[in-house]
Design goal:
The chain is of the alpha/beta class. It is 52% helix and 12% strand. The strands form 4 sheets. A 5-stranded parallel sheet has the order 2-5-8-1-9, with helices on both faces. It has a two-stranded antiparallel ribbon with strand order 3-4. The longest helix is centred in the N-terminal third of the chain and has 38 residues. Adenosine-5'-triphosphate binds next to helix 4. The site of magnesium ion has 3 residues, from helix 4.
């Protein structure tokens, strides 16, 4: 688990997200509280439940982005799901428990990756030996550990391993091949390799929309009825090596152990991000049958947020200490439109602010992965160098604000549509203009945006 202090977490988030200081502070505290809880004696630890958060704010101002970045830097299992995906138990659709199963899959992938990292060196070594066995079947040492070294031999005695040592020339051929392989001289040669194909009929059982879980279970069941098969494939040696690494790594890691660790990780530090929570709120303007089901979803959510046990492929998962962060625009509803029990489970509320041109300018220039940096790098691949003048980016920011005001406020997403419009001609012509340096200045921006700015209706469609 991450040991970052709240201040450190905020400063990490600052690298990617402009403004929204309150929201950053709040999630930073929530993260730190989980670390604090881990330091406590077990009796007290179990008593402390996470303080779940609701982030409110208009579209495109960084709600999801904060949650995503937080997940990345904390290394916790993190899963994001739209609350609108769920339907009440008993109806066709996804049941809310599936989000715990999904979070568990993420935990498994996370732990497995870490374990793979730990056995990497060994797996690479084994894969190399295996590869040489395939290339030179005759040179295979009969008993690899005994061949050159006899651990039982007394140091003073002559070591009687002569007869087990492969003959001089096969072992030196093996070393020659090893060197060639390491120098990359064998990469393109083709080789036959046995690969294991997942059991099953080879036909995916298509699942009905909303019934993916059931489809998955059926596929698993059928998979278990047909044992895994071996199949010979012709691949180049580079690919063969990758396949062998996979196989050797799988032998070296214990999946039961991975499942245990993943479950522990999910239960103690998992984060579930429930997006679009406002869309299941609407309790008051109740009319029609959709509201019945919305409230039903809220009721189904309740036990999971409060703490219950969910059955997954990897065993039972307790949800008591999973942190829930939910987000929504809350344009047409308020947190108080959620059923009271659920409101109580999300005690922390934070508001994110609408963004204006100053923030837009910073979003264009400050983050490590800023849009301007992305476009520059993309065009670099065509040997085109682009640079932006300060005035040009100010113009982009101001235009974004203006169009957000005049049409619909879609926040920072507006920058995407504008940048795309400005650079689309260049993107298209890039391969023919290799070697050029293009300065994007204010006139360039104005020129590219001229027709849409003049025609407000047009801007509705294009930007
Ligand atoms: N404050 C910000 N700083 C930097 N980038 C931002 C900021 N706000 C939004 N963005 C960028 O705009 C895009 C949309 O933001 P995000 O997905 O966080 O929106 P949201 O608040 O979750 O909106 P919605 O309610 O529509 O889900 C992201 O790609 C993000 O990088
Ligand atoms: Mg979002």
């Amino acid at each position: 688990m991450s040991t970052l202090t709240p201040r450190e977490i905020v400063s990490e988030l600052d690298k990617f997200i402009i403004g929204q200081a309150d929201a950053k502070r709040m999630v930073a505290i929530a993260m730190r509280n989980r670390w604090r809880r881990q330091q406590l004696p077990a009796e007290l630890r179990d008593e402390i439940s996470p303080k779940n958060i609701i982030m409110m704010g208009p579209t495109g101002v960084g709600k999801t982005e904060i949650a995503r970045r937080l997940a990345k830097l904390s290394g916790c299992p993190f899963f994001k799901v739209e609350a609108t995906k769920f339907t009440e138990v008993g109806y066709v659709g996804r049941d809310v428990e599936s989000m715990i199963r999904d979070l568990m899959e993420i935990g498994i992938a996370l732990v497995r990756k870490e374990e793979l990292g730990k056995v990497k060196v060994k797996a690479e070594k084994n894969a190399e030996e295996h590869l040489l066995d395939l290339l030179l079947p005759s040179s295979k040492p009969k008993n690899p550990t005994m061949a050159f070294f006899n651990p039982n031999a007394n140091a003073n005695e002559a070591i009687p391993i002569q007869e087990e040592k492969p003959s001089e020339d096969t072992s030196s051929t093996r070393e020659k091949f090893r060197k060639m392989w390491r120098d990359g001289k064998l990469d393109e040669r083709e080789i036959d390799i046995e690969v294991t194909v997942q059991g099953g009929t080879g036909v995916e059982i298509m699942s009905m929309p909303g019934m993916e879980d059931m489809g998955m279970q059926v596929n698993d069941m059928i998979g278990n009825m047909f044992p895994n098969k071996k199949k010979t494939r012709k691949v180049n040696i580079r690919e063969a090596y990758d396949i062998l690494i996979q196989e050797e790594s799988d032998k070296l890691i214990d999946m039961d152990n991975v499942a245990d660790m993943a479950r522990e990780r999910v239960e103690q530090s998992g984060i579930l991000f429930l997006d679009e929570i406002d869309k299941i709120a609407g309790r008051h303007e109740s009319s029609g049958s959709t509201d019945v089901s919305r409230e039903g979803v809220q009721r189904d959510l309740l036990p999971i947020v409060e703490g219950s046990v969910v059955k997954t492929k990897y065993g039972m998962v307790k949800t008591d200490h999973i942190l829930f962060i939910s987000a929504g625009a809350f344009h047409y509803s308020k947190p108080s439109d959620l059923i009271p029990e659920l409101q109580g489970r999300f005690p922390l509320r934070v508001e994110l602010h609408a963004l204006g041109k100053d923030e837009f300018y910073r979003i264009l220039t400050e983050p490590q992965n800023a849009l301007t940096v992305q476009y520059k790098a993309l065009l670099e691949t065509e040997k085109i160098t682009i640079d932006y003048s300060r005035e040009a980016l100010e113009e982009v920011a101001a235009t974004a604000q203006k169009i957000n005001e005049e049409t619909e406020n879609i926040g920072a997403r507006r920058l995407y549509t504008i940048m795309e419009k400005i650079l689309s001609d260049l993107s298209f012509e890039a391969p023919d203009r290799s070697g050029e340096t293009v300065m994007i200045d204010k006139d360039y921006v104005k020129d590219k945006l001229k027709d849409v700015i003049e025609d407000r209706d047009l801007s509705r469609y294009i930007l």
